[in-house]
Amino acid sequence: MEENRTFRDRYMAGETDFEEIFSLTGKWNFSDDTRTLREFLGLTPEEEDVWISESDEALEDLMEKEKNTRILFVDLDGTLLNDKKEITEKNRRAVDDALARGHKIVITTGRPTVSARRLSRELGLVKDGCFAIAYNGGEIYDLYREKSVYRRTIPLEYVKKVFEEAKKRGLHCQTYNDENILIEKETEEVKRYQKMTNVTAVVVPDVIEALKGREPVKLIVMDYEDHNKLVAFEEETKEWADGKLDRIFSCAAYLEHVAPGVSKGSAMSILCEKLGIPMCNTIAAGDAPNDVSMIEAAAVGVVMQNAPEDIKSCGDYVTEADNNHDGIAEVIERFM
pLDDT tens digit string along 131-150? Predict the structure, then answer.
């Protein structure tokens, strides 16, 4: 509703000029509003600090810069990376150029944070303005400052239940601590997964004990040979899981389990709020079912040319180039 939109909302959308802040401040001074002035105006803590410690002009300069900042949320496999799991030289140059112009680049992946961090270093995506959304939205990590800025976990009792149900059906199940994949039995699935993510799996007698009281962000139940076994597992555990966990297929072989409400799309909104970037300045690019939430949430939702046809219908724009031919450079040149 219009009355709930703050000065900052309207300024970032280009619907008002900076001078309105002064009349609104006067209105707040003579009102009974219980909110702080920052809350009343919708300013971020950083903006309030600049306003107090510097000047009106400094705040206006900061907000103008923020208004023009674009943020690109980009999937890794099949999107930023080619089929050899490499970033093409043209994609790399386009990303570097966007960062140099003050924009933000956020790699979004189902991979664990440790894998996203390692890959980001290899790709050179550790500059100011680089972030990672890992675990399909379960954790947000500042790659430049090397710190987690958001983390949503799964209760240990739910972890135990999923492992037990997967074991009954002969399905591989895994979770994570900060550095490793945790499994109770080595399987062909985890061997393939280790090779792809460059994260070491550790076999433990009891995953719950190995977690040492620290709740994980994600579980995966896997089967590379028979997708229908995963579909049956999802259906047979649906009554128990409803309201406790959200599940999604990131590919035919992976049934991902995260806390309710966790998705790439929800993490996108959380990071934008933390950075003070309006949602109207968001772009998201992906190619798989677990990318749909962010593609639909973004102001500009981009689907890669190599994506399945049903995913292409979810976006605002489909790239002309695929992930092997600089598709992300095309996105940056067109929208940033």
Answer: 999 999 999 999 999 999 99
CATH 3.30.1240.10 fits 156-258, yes or no: yes
- Token pair in block for residue 91: 């994609």
Check pLDDT > 90 for residue 13.
no
Centroid of chain to Cα 66: 20
Q: Using DSSP bridges, classify how beta strands 130-134 and 104-108 pair: parallel, antiparallel or unpaired.
A: parallel
Most distant CA atoms of the chain, gap in Å: 69
For the chain, give every domain's residue range: 2-67, 71-152+262-335, 156-258
pTM reported for the whole predicted model: 0.84
- The per-residue pLDDT for range 210-230, each reduced to its tens digit, is 999 999 999 999 999 999 999
Residue 3: predicted pLDDT: 58
Return the CATH superfamily for domain 71-152+262-335. Answer: HAD superfamily/HAD-like (3.40.50.1000)
